[in-house]
Amino acid sequence: MLGERMPPDSSSETTIDHAWVERTFLEPEHTEVDRRDPSLRHALRRIPERDDRVLRVVYNDSLDPPRIVTAYFDRRQRGKP
Description:
Elements lengths: L17 H9 L3 E4 L6 E8 L5 E8 L6 E7 L8
Antiparallel strand pairs: 1-2, 2-3, 3-4
């Protein structure tokens, strides 16, 4: 499921641990279908090690195995349960 290659961090200030990405992908607290591309899914999970910021992992569910497209901390989700 998690390929050898991971997308690079979008910001040098924000380090995203691969274990957090894996945990979010495998055990999300919430999932969403992408608004523009139905083959993409969004897995969301609060990361306690980062002050409960919400990590969003976007992956292509139509591939076998699924492939992660990107992962980032979603500021719009800050403070949401």
